[in-house]
């Protein structure tokens, strides 16, 4: 497996991380995601990590990097499905997921992204889909 | 990785298959899916296979089995994201995915499931959520 599939659903891209991340895979995911944001004009990225038993500093950095790049492309990143044990470890390690919002599960994550999109009609990011209003 | 995560989104369960399936994993997926259909009352199962480079008879049987069990539990299964090469091989091998509908991508698959749910308000499967009408 050399690519993690990205599902497009409305204005949101959904990624489920199921395999151990390594350098090349992480880079490929970031590239694919940014290319897909640019192509589809997606405003939200939802990353589901319920399968991950460990979030170490490598994965943490990868997530922060994806979120930062996505933000530049005007898409918000939400992390969903984090296991409680992973959350505890993150806090203990002092790893901060700067710029990433979290949600308990995919449904709440989608609601979060939807609320954000509904809320910033007049915001800085709205010129992108200016055709609509 | 011993479990494939199942994402619940509204009345649909979404599964992305990214790893090579083996016996135990396929069985676990079927168990998890049926348990989740029973628990959540989901009416649709969407299986995304864009990462699969091969669908052999083992995976074919697994998909057919998941669809059959889901149908007994009153949930429809849609297969989304099949690669063109996989489709060609399926036809050449004469593998029939009995009882499984297919869609080009997740978005169309969701639309298919939505249309099915909207269309069978008076159908055989509607006694399950009889509270609503």
From TrEMBL, chains A, B:
Pfam families in alphabetical order: STAS (PF01740)
Xref: PROSITE patterns: STAS
Domain of life the protein comes from: Bacteria
Signal peptide range in chain numbering: none
InterPro entries in alphabetical order: Bact_StressResp_Reg (IPR051932), STAS_dom (IPR002645), STAS_dom_sf (IPR036513)
Domain STAS: residue ranges: 1-113
Record SUPFAM superfamilies: SpoIIaa-like (SSF52091)
Matching PANTHER family: RSBT ANTAGONIST PROTEIN RSBS, RSBT ANTAGONIST PROTEIN RSBS-RELATED
Name under which the protein is recorded: Anti-sigma factor antagonist
């Amino acid at each position: 497996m050399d690519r993690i599939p990205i599902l497009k659903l409305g204005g949101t891209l959904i990624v489920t991380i199921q395999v151990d991340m390594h350098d090349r895979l992480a880079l490929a995911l970031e590239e694919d995601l940014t290319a897909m944001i640019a192509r589809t004009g997606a405003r939200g990225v939802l990353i589901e990590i319920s399968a991950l038993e460990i979030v170490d500093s490598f994965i943490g950095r990868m997530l922060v990097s994806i979120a930062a790049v996505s933000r530049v492309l005007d898409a918000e990143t939400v992390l969903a499905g984090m296991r409680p044990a992973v959350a505890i470890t993150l806090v203990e390690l002092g790893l901060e997921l700067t710029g990433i919002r979290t949600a308990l599960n995919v449904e709440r994550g989608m609601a979060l992204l939807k609320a954000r999109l509904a809320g910033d009609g007049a915001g800085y990011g709205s010129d992108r889909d200016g055709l609509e209003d």
